[in-house]
Amino acid sequence: MKTTIPSVNQKLANEVNLPLVQVNAFITLYDDGNTVPFIARYRKEATQGLDDIQLRLLETRLIYLRELNVRRQSILKAIVALGKLTPELKVKIEQCENKSTLEDLYLPYKSKRISKGELAIEAGLEPLADKLWIQADGEPQSLGRQYINPNKGFSDIDSVLEGALSICMERIVNDPQLLGKLRHYLSANAAFECKVAKGKEQQAVKYKDYFDYQEPLHKIPAHRFLAILRGKKEGLLKLDLNADPKQDKKTKSSYCESLIAHHLGFSWLQLPANNWRKKVIQKAWKGKLAGQLETQLITRLKDDAHENAMDNFASNLKALLMAAPAGPKVTLGLDPGLRTGCKLAVIDSTGKLLAHQTIYPHQPVNKTQQAAQEVLKLINDFKVELIAVGNGTASRESDDFIHTTLAQQNLEVATVIVSEAGASVYSASELASEEFPDLDVSIRGAVSIARRLQDPLAELVKIDAKAIGVGLYQHDVNQSSLSQRLGSVVEDCVNSVGVDLNSASVSLLARVAGLNHTVAKNIVSYRDLNGAFKSRLALQKVPRLGDKAYQQSAGFLRINNALNPLDNSAVHPEAYNLVKRIAAQQGVKVQQLLNNSGLLNSLDAQNYADQTFGVISIREIIQELAKPQRDPRPDFQRVDFAKNINKISDLQDGMLLQGVISNVTNFGAFVDIGVHQDGLVHISQLADNFVSDPFAIVKVGQLVNVRVVEIDVQRKRIALSMRLAVKA
Known about the structure:
Elements: H1 8-16, H2 20-31, H3 36-42, H4 44-47, H5 52-82, H6 87-95, H7 99-106, H8 116-122, H9 126-134, H10 140-144, H11 157-173, H12 176-189, E1 191-196, E2 212-216, H13 222-233, E3 237-242, H14 255-263, H15 276-321, E4 331-335, E5 342-347, E6 353-359, H16 368-382, E7 386-390, H17 395-408, E8 414-418, H18 423-427, H19 430-435, H20 441-454, H21 456-460, H22 479-497, E9 499-500, H23 506-509, H24 517-530, H25 547-553, E10 557-558, H26 576-586, H27 590-593, H28 597-601, H29 615-626, E11 656-665, E12 668-672, E13 679-682, E14 703-712, E15 717-721
Parallel strand pairs: 4-7, 7-8, 9-10, 13-15
Antiparallel strand pairs: 1-2, 1-3, 4-5, 5-6, 11-12, 11-14, 12-13, 14-15
């Protein structure tokens, strides 16, 4: 039989709405071992300008479609082995576009324990099943007596009729076309009904919104569905599917039974109550299909919600990683605490630890004056330029203490409250132990807090992205898929910014395109043994860093004070000769091209195009030469939390405060306003105009002004608004 499987390339082009030539170019490059960051930056000519977002989508869908094809071939092979592959079934399988429908088609042929219907067929009851279905108004008992067969397990008329019913019922249950119709109807019309588990009212108070809740399947938001599923998993909520929410509750039958009857070619309403067909359909629906489809729909919605949650996590993570760095300044990190004291760590402009200390400015110890003296000594001894205060327990008290200490000495040192999310994970990690083997875990946390202020990206890559805390329901989703998604985000961010080859940690180097943890360790070992790299070419001497790894990584690695000035830019070594040619034609040295916008803006890329470099690539190179050390991250800003507003009980309705976005979701954004409990700006309060996508309005790390709308101290909920004007 001739195959009708559509080309993966063409299918992918149709899905993402891109010309086939661009999709073909990506697949060719990708299959040749090129990374997404490398293709996005250095192969724009081939892909006609596809960016990293488009390329990541292509990568994700390419993997899915190839997995679908592998499963398709496996199913075809299995059905051929059973001798049951018809031309019609083959076409359906080959034309199938998703894994769910593919499994529906395979369902009747799956290897499983023998069913009641199959036992009945083996006992010779299939002719009876056919008669009863055709002669639906006949007398079942008189038709069935001749089929009694004790040797086959059908010793009386009741068991015979039950066997015949099972045959008919399984035909219905295993009809993939019918399953599709029922699933489509339920998706459009059914509703989820949620109630609190009996006797769990107090324990389930955080799920109060879902104690008596109903919402159509097609309308329920992802975050709400995940909250319900979590409550159900904890045994606090009960979830049911109502197939006919608009139907009178006194009606005993479901519209789905009418749908089954119509699919089989007759009217449900015209069937007598004792009709054999009616009995079969009722048992098929209530005994099998209702529960089976409910499970499938919950699984599908859960998968969609998980996908949505991972998308949101990825967006928030990207914003956090691309947050503005304070820069290479001597920084004092303060990990706040009460009884155990505040841990201090001073690092130099490169992140190297200079000194550490523990102070006790707060209750119950209250050595405030001594603590102030120790802070001032560190500031003066090491010329501290920035102070980073962790946002954990006692952060506002510690921030106030620092401000008071500085004010008493008329010192001006910028103080910033920094998110501690994941700092404890780093502190207890093998990486931190290798870097600071003799340092207490809590001091390592202070070091991490200080480094995050200097360069959030360089420090946060040391932590498992899942521990950074900018996603909702991250522990509920598939952890392998989440790790892959977040890993791609980290890789894209690291390569977008670029990496200093002579100061980068193993964790940071391992995220560079073409490198892995082993090669990254080898780079650091080579650097420690031979001193700082003077050129990118020296990378080729690093053990296990081959030609492909060099090609993929070189353009993303920067070398300050390199022998070749292009080594401190995003210009790839493969384009060095082109830059030399441009410089020679302009009568200048390569060094004189860098940052020379006037000269570079006058160049016509068309004049330098050849078989190796086209106009798109040359324009990119010219832009890079104009700003060789450009950083795509924004300028650094710091939030100014309100004084004397340190806890939720200090808040009052109507207060205007400054805060920083800590998390963005589909239903709004959470804002840190310095009271140890983030407030929520609902999507309806993000702007004066209608907002459909919060991610289009705000991002993690953004400074915002908010108005306090409502405070629920008992449930620790704060409602905020970015619509600052109060309507009269």
